[in-house]
Write the structure tokens for this entry.
Amino acid sequence: MKILRYVAFALGGIAALLVAGGLIAYATFDANKLKAEVTQIVREKKQRELSIDGDVALSFWPSIGVQIGRVRLSEHASDKPFAALASARVSLAVMPLFSKQVVVDRLELEGVDATLVRGKDGKLNIDDLMSKDESADSGAVRFDVSAIKLKGAKLAWRDEQAGQSATLSDLNLATGKIANQASGRLDLAGKLELAKPAAKTDLAVKGDYDIDLDMKRFALAATDVRVKGDVAPLAGLDLVLGAGRLAFDTASGQLLVERLKLDATGKLDEESFAVKVDAPKLQADAEKAGGETVSLVARLAGAKRTLDAKVDLAGMQGSSAALKIGKLAMTVDAKLGDTTVHGTVNTPLDANLKTLAFDMPAFALDLDAKAGESTVKGRVSTPLAANLQAMRFDLAKIGGELDVASPQMPMKSLRLPLEGELHADLGKQTANGQLATKFDESAIRAKFGASKFAPLALSFDVDIDRINVDKYFPPDPKKPKDTADKPIDLSALKNLNATGAVRIGALQASGIKASNIKLEIKAANGKLDVAPHSASLYDGTLAGSLSADANGNRIIAKETLTNVNIDPLLRDVAKKDMLEGRGNLALDIATQGGSVDAMKRALGGSARVALRDGAVKGINVAKTLREYKALTGSAKQGAAQQAVTTEKTDFTEMTASFRIAGGVAHNDDLSAKSPLLRLAGAGQVNIAESKLDYLAKATVVNTSTGQEGKDLANLKGVTVPVRLSGPFDALSYQVDFAAIATDLAKAKVEEATKQLQEKAQAKVQEKVQSQVQDKLKGLLGR
């Protein structure tokens, strides 16, 4: 019993000493002196400026603590701010002090504002704070905090090397015990903002933790993570991650995941998405790995398309460095308009969880797609290697066959062999590859690459030796003409950034035939330029430029056709048989609008045509004049007659220029020549309404050439007005016989007058000559 009394006396003495010591410390405590000393130490040891603007207060039992007001700390060797806090409280456990140990009992911080920076040289702005102080006895401090509480904090990170930044603001953090070995409850909430990718979210993490820093073991149980906000390109992201247990042992490399579930929803552009992941149990270490089936279900849905995908991973065994998954089963169903795609993948998978490298040597995709009545079926296979750490994917040898079937194709079906490769680096946002196929008489090879994914920056090079599109999808001449106005929307160009070239040896499409086609293509900032481009067609050449601009839905074309055969060109392009001849055509036009009709009505610019050795089809002016009966005295207006393509008016040369405005082409300088006729005219071509209103004037100039000339001898010098009018597909012409009669009568009057003048002049000359002769006879005396 005496010993108990001795112990009690000793404890009472210690308590009395502590109380006395505390009272003395409290009575002699000088806050200003402490501030000055701490500020001086920081300045000398760390070359930083520490400002303690708030009050400093002490507390004792059951722990010794210091509470301070506003504190600011500068950057190293600079007066620029590094960190600040509104208030802080740090308390130390009393009993460990007797064994010369400093144990932090509780840490409370409010209004922390700090920025961590990694400079372009790779150094952190806290390297000096983390450097070891040789004079300090680090073994005297044991990391043992009963609780940490952070309120209203703002922590920022700026990486000048990577051009990245992140900010965690409105941060509130509460923990249980934090020590070398500890367990407790974690509750974190804040707002997270990132620069790349652009993100602005609310973040919340709750869970039970169990840590052992000495053994390097970390575990979370009953974990609930929530992220809500925008993470480019996702909007309205709502992500919930839950796990029964997450454990990681860095020393042994052991990983344990139990009852992990992820559920995420949001929007991608204007489409909604949903993703669910379920992993009942996964376990891996350096020696072995295994687990139950992991499943993923994803859906993307919008007004124009839907996409559903399901992935299952089963039969996992091996180790974290050599994990083998017996079966990766994936199903994809997509719908875009009336196009549907169904794809399946079944393949084994090898993985290295330490390096996050995955290898599928027998990856194969079975494809079944349908668009209207057309179908595409087949299999595409390739070795596939992926490294998720480097975010790199390689499809080294793509091969396979696709069967294309359509009732519109005369042969009903077509088999397309495929070969190529694809390489993508998602970290660097780059990709490149090539793809080739050969069928019938066509061989197609394309190379492509991407230098950026968001927004996509694409490059390509396409080479086609020859292709006859009409062979597979021939135009249907029996199909009724669709007269309804069709919208033209160029807005897709706003998201297109591409450069490339296309070369085609020989092409036929919609009846148009061309060869040696070369296209230089560039798309950026909503504008597509196909310039320069060139081709050989209809015994001549085409060269020019074409641009389409989504900013205003505008199209501009400058084209020059040289030495082309105009007749087959018009028949193939415009389906019109109106003109024959060879020569040059120049176009400089521009238009804009939201539909085909609007663009026709807004068409403006200029055009010029120069032809030789041709004919205007639909009317034979010489034949019409031979049938003219006004010579018998009739002077009536000729009846309108339909143009007939078998009739034509020949010319040796013809030129005309057009001014185009409001969808109407105006011409007033038509000039055509033939051995028999001269042709002039003026009028307009209404492109918007597909109508012609033109007055041509033919003049007979040579009546000595053949029977036609002799038949028209009495019309020599007479101008014949011919009016061409009506829609393009039903043109009619009308000869103004009354004008011919008037012109002919005028010509006869002028001819009679001329003859009278010539007779009168002859009589005068005869009389003068007679008088002169009489005078001469008188002078000579005869």
Remarks:
- Confidence is low (pLDDT under 50) at residues 1-27, 136-141, 629-637.
- The first helix runs from residue 2 to 28.
- The CA atoms of residues 323 and 351 lie 5 Å apart.
